[in-house]
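step=encode ok
step=design start
structure_in=
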């Protein structure tokens, strides 16, 4: 494999040199030596950095990512942890979707005041209980408010 100095790794991976040094200190990556004052890495570090980026994008903390990247260059991923993380992401998606739908409703609601809107009152009640996004079925649309889909369609035509 080809040797890359820290600058080349930073350029090819998009990870700043300071983050590379931090990852090395945390045991996520390892340099294979030095060329003058510069750290040198095996080209395989690029794949490890891609795995780190993927783990971070999925919401894994660095400590958990470090447990998946064993020192000999292998990857040991706990499949059940992946299932658990997928469940966490699903819950986040539901919460964000509910929040988006609530915002779209509030933006288009035809009630004289949001506080007079039954749908908005249900949203407030759910928020007060910490249940935004946890409902399993969609609440019926209020007769005085256009659906979020109609709002999106009318915006896309504009």
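sequence_out=
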């Amino acid at each position: 494999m080809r040797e890359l100095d820290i600058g080349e790794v930073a350029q090819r991976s998009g990870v700043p040199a300071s983050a590379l040094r931090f990852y090395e200190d945390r045991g996520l990556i390892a340099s294979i030596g030095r060329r003058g004052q510069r750290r040198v890495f095996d080209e395989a570090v690029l794949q490890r950095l891609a795995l780190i980026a993927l783990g971070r994008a999925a919401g894994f903390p660095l400590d958990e990512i470090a447990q998946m990247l064993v020192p000999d260059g292998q990857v040991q991923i706990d499949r059940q942890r992946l299932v658990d993380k997928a469940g966490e992401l699903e819950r986040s998606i539901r919460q964000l979707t509910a929040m988006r739908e609530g915002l779209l409703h509030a933006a288009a609601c035809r009630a004289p005041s949001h506080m007079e809107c039954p749908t908005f009152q249900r949203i407030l009640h759910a928020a007060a209980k910490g249940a935004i996004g946890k409902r399993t079925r969609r609440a019926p649309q209020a007769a005085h408010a256009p659906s979020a889909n109609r709002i999106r369609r009318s915006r896309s035509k504009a």
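step=design ok
step=annotate ok -> Confidence is low (pLDDT under 50) at residues 133-158.
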